[in-house]
Amino acid sequence: MSAGRFAPSPTATLHLGNLRTALVAWAAARSVGSPFMVRIEDMDAVACRPEHEESALVDLHRLGLDHDGPVLRQSERAEVYSAAIERLVDDGLTYPCYCTRREVLAEAAAAVAAPHGRPPGAYVGTCRTLGAAARAEREAAGRRPSLRLRAGGEVVGYVDRLVGAREGEVDDFIVRRADGTPAYNLAVVVDDAAQGVQEVVRGDDLLDTTPRQILLARLLGLDVPTHLHVPLVLGPDGERLAKRHGSVTLDDQLVLGRTIDDVISMFAVSLGLAISGETLTVDDIAARFDVSRLARRPWTLTVADLPG
Ligand code: GLU
Questions:
Q1: Model confidence at 1, in pLDDT bands (50, 70, 90)?
Q2: What is the DSSP string of the chain?
Q3: Best residue for ligand 1 mutational test, from 41, 44, 190 (most atoms within 8 Å of Cβ)
Q4: Chain-centroid distance, C-alpha 158
Q5: Span from the CA of 202 to the centroid of ligand 1 (angstroms)
Q6: How far is the C-alpha of 181 from the C-alpha of 194, rounded, in Å?
């Protein structure tokens, strides 16, 4: 049966924005009786910490967002990602790229705009046609290549359940980084398929990368999930919610005197699924979940929401 999912990166304690998105993902799945999966996106060994994984699972539990099946950890799945990368290589769909990050950004800034829109920093294809001699020269200079997908300028359209019709030209994005680790887009696509995820609900900061993931799923012969991108939560200054805004974690809110139910109800009101003053459980939210009622604008917190 089609599943939903929440896939946090344990680089910090989850904040209200992450938890609110988790609630939407959970309610979307449970509202139609679907399984809900959790995946820990911990491939970046430097940035990720076990204590953040632990606190993410505790916070989901405290909110009552239960999940099915085992928690998948990306750090334990290197072989599965390698197999997917091998398949792309065997199909002639990749090439080595020797560009540094700085070069990629400079070339992207200088490139003419694409008619269908490309994500910021999209790769312009510098290494796509490098000959053997040019490759050897770069190898000799000690450059280690990343591996890029030969996307062929494919334009991918899809209909986001909240945002509506979108399309974007897919650039030759990285599938394996120069240090040998699989790239985020590759791991997400492989894992969503492995976990039977058919509806991806996540923050709308990832809207621009969705065409990449759809194309990759197609090339790997995997089912393409539907998408629902939730507007982000902003701090009182209008910037994307972050630690520097103050009391942004669930624990912080409890210290401020709010209860779990208060936080859940606050999320429901901000999402357009409850009216101010209503107290709801997460089950109530799943029961009344309705995409057509979901807020389409970011939720901006006030100073009163985040004292300290
Ligand atoms: N791990 C990503 C994050 O925490 C989310 C990836 C996804 O939902 O596809 O931002």
A1: low
A2: --BEEE---TTS---HHHHHHHHHHHHHHHHTT--EEEEE----TTT--HHHHHHHHHHHHHHT----SPPEEGGG-HHHHHHHHHHHHHTT-EEEE---HHHHHHHHHHSPPPTT---TT----TTTT--HHHHHHHHHTTPPPEEEE--TT-EEEEEETTTEEEEEE----EEE-TTSPBPHHHHHHHHHHHTTB-EEEEEGGGGGGHHHHHHHHHHTTPPPPEEEEEPPEE-TTSSBP-GGGSS-SHHHHHHTT--HHHHHHHHHHHHTSS-TT----HHHHHHT--GGGS--SPEEPPGGGS--
A3: 41
A4: 16
A5: 7
A6: 19
d(CA 77, ligand 1 centre) in Å: 17
Per-residue tokens: 94: 């990749």
Predicted pLDDT of residue 297? 94
User: Residue 242: what residue type?
Assistant: A
Report whether pLDDT(153) > 90: yes
Residue 308: its pLDDT value, please? Answer: 67
From 5, 52, 206, the mutation candidate for ligand 1 (largest count of ligand atoms within 8 A of CB) is 206
Pocket of ligand 1 (CB under 6 A): 7-9, 41, 188, 202, 206
Q: 242 C-alpha vs ligand 1 centroid, how far in Å?
A: 15
- Residue 18 alpha carbon, nearest atom of ligand 1: 4
- pLDDT digit string (tens) for 63-116? 999 999 999 999 999 999 999 999 999 999 999 999 998 988 888 888 877 666
Domain annotation for the chain: domains and CATH numbers: 4-76+231-300 (3.40.50.620), 79-186 (3.90.800.10)
Mutate to test the pocket of ligand 1, among 9, 190, 197, 204 (most ligand atoms within 8 A of CB): 9
